[in-house]
């Protein structure tokens, strides 16, 4: 099958002569970003732990007329990360664009997350993102400038049953602001994109029950639907581009308005376990019909 070039809304040679590194670029949102950047003229290096999806994405991009390469990496390992960034600069001579897209987590009530489970998710989504960002700055961007975008999540009002990733992604949004300030004078912009529920191939890594819950999110999203991989990619590409030259330290929501609603992602169980406080004897007591019915 012939692979057509990515149908980007951006100008064809936007990233000509630039080199981009996309972590997690072999699958889902990362794969879409890799395709879009390559269609816009960048040489794209995709990096992750499994070689097969990386090779497939590289082959697709090459077939579509773009330039791509891959590196195997576990972003939780500092030595791996250093080797990845060195390989990109050695092979391609520069590193202009970094997309911290690799990430993931598992749904679980907080009390059942083991210490190692918590550490693993924070290591991947926060520490891994920091390691890659730091390595890209030290190896290239600190001297030559560049643009960094990290993919986080809709953690704005907490992330029930995903507390580990919520904490890690909020930390990345905060790190994004710190680094934007520290590195502005070096010509490096640092931003993030916070996707809501995106119908990415990554969704199929979850069990059926979770996927059903995710599908039901449509009814609480003002856009009336979940998002596409391309919609997440377009936001990342915009922030990487010169069109965003005056934007740094920002986390852009790509969630169809979902994060604006007060409705929780998961329903609150009816209970009477939260005692009220009435410090004033003339205060109104909450009447029975205003309390949850068991
Ligand atoms: C309400 C719906 C809203 C929908 C919004 C959706 C928003 C987000 C969507 C996405 O991100 S899409 C998909 C992205 N992709 C993934 O998430 C990938 C899948 N996840 C993983 O690969 C793992 O979760 C991982 C932990 C991130 C990495 O796993 P790794 O193989 O490195 O770890 P392990 O060695 O297997 O485990 C380490 C540690 O973690 C515990 N653990 C792992 N999975 C689970 C689980 N499902 N439940 C409970 N605990 C888990 C595991 O037991 C280990 O701990 P110890 O046993 O050693 O204590
Ligand atoms: N889909 C959605 O609704 C949302 C997704 N996100 C985030 O967007 C990003 C992309 O997700 P999506 O495309 O949906 O899902 P995917 O599961 O397809 O993408 C995750 C990618 O990260 C890579 N990865 C995971 N762990 C590591 C690691 N330790 N080192 C290097 N690479 C790693 C995976 O490759 P490999 O396993 O080969 O290493 C994979 O390519 C993730 O950070 C995800 O959490 C955020 C909000 C919503």
From TrEMBL:
Q: In which pathway does it act?
A: Lipid metabolism
Q: Does the keyword Cell inner membrane apply?
A: no
State whether keyword NADP applies.
Answer: yes
Oligomeric state and partners? Answer: Interacts with PEX5, probably required to target it into peroxisomes.
Q: What function does this protein fulfil?
A: Participates in chain elongation of fatty acids. Catalyzes the reduction of trans-2-enoyl-CoAs of varying chain lengths from 6:1 to 16:1, having maximum activity with 10:1 CoA. Has no 2,4-dienoyl-CoA reductase activity.
Keywords in alphabetical order: Fatty acid biosynthesis, Fatty acid metabolism, Lipid biosynthesis, Lipid metabolism, NADP, Oxidoreductase, Peroxisome, Phosphoprotein
* Biological source species: Euzebya pacifica
Q: What is its EC number?
A: 1.3.1.38
Question: Which compartments is it annotated to reside in?
Answer: Peroxisome
Cite a single GO MF annotation. trans-2-enoyl-CoA reductase (NADPH) activity
Catalysed conversion reaction: (2E)-octenoyl-CoA + NADPH + H(+) = octanoyl-CoA + NADP(+); a (2E)-enoyl-CoA + NADPH + H(+) = a 2,3-saturated acyl-CoA + NADP(+); (2E)-hexenoyl-CoA + NADPH + H(+) = hexanoyl-CoA + NADP(+); (2E)-decenoyl-CoA + NADPH + H(+) = decanoyl-CoA + NADP(+)
Q: What is this protein called?
A: Peroxisomal trans-2-enoyl-CoA reductase
An example GO BP is:
fatty acid biosynthetic process
- What InterPro entries does its record include? NAD(P)-bd_dom_sf (IPR036291), Peroxisomal_t2-enoyl-CoA_red (IPR052388), SDR_fam (IPR002347)
């Amino acid at each position: 099958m012939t692979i057509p070039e990515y149908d980007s809304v951006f100008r064809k040679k936007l990233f000509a002569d630039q080199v981009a590194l996309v972590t997690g670029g072999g699958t889902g949102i990362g794969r879409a970003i890799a395709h879009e950047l390559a269609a816009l003229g960048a040489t794209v290096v995709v990096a992750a732990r499994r070689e097969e999806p990386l090779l497939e994405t590289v082959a697709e991009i090459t077939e579509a007329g773009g330039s791509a390469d891959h590196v195997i990496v576990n972003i939780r390992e500092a030595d791996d990360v250093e080797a990845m960034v060195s390989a990109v600069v050695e092979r391609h001579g520069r590193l202009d664009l970094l997309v911290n897209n690799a990430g993931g987590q598992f749904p679980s009530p907080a009390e059942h997350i083991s210490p190692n489970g918590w550490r693993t998710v924070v290591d991947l989504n926060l520490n891994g993102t920091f390691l890659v960002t730091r390595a890209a700055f030290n190896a290239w961007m600190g001297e030559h400038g560049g643009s960094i975008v990290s993919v986080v999540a809709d953690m704005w009002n907490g992330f029930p049953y995903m507390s580990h990733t919520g904490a890690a992604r909020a930390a990345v949004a905060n790190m994004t602001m710190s680094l934007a300030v520290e590195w502005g004078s070096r010509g490096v912009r640092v931003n993030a994109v916070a996707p809501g529920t995106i119908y990415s191939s990554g969704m199929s890594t979850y069990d059926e029950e979770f996927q059903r819950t995710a599908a039901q999110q449509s009814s609480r999203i003002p856009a009336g639907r979940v998002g596409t991989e391309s919609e997440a990619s377009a936001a990342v590409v915009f922030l990487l581009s010169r069109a965003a030259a005056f934007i740094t330290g920002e986390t852009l929501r790509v969630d169809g308005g979902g994060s604006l609603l007060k409705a929780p992602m998961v329903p609150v169980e009816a209970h009477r376990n939260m005692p009220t406080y009435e410090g004033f004897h003339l205060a109104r007591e909450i009447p029975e019909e205003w309390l949850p019915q068991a």
